[in-house]
Amino acid sequence: MRSPPLWLHAVRGKQNDDKKAQTDQQAEAIGLDGNRFRLLIGLGFLVIVLFSPDGIVGLWERWRRRGEAGQLQPGGDRHG
To answer: Which of 26, 40, 48, 64 is spaced 20 to 30 Å from 8 by Cα?
Structure first.
């Protein structure tokens, strides 16, 4: 299979650079530059590890059990 012409790589590279610059500007506009983003990701990880040793899956299952408990009818049968 033949590779695309060299000029096409240059055009695609320029388009990717423009998209990256636009994404960086949007991130800065909402206050999520690289360092702050990494900080928030790290804090989120610590919260999950400290408050839910089972991780995200454990939180998900706990949330699902609460939802299922709320759907039970007083007679004990589930409808649906």
So the answer is: 26
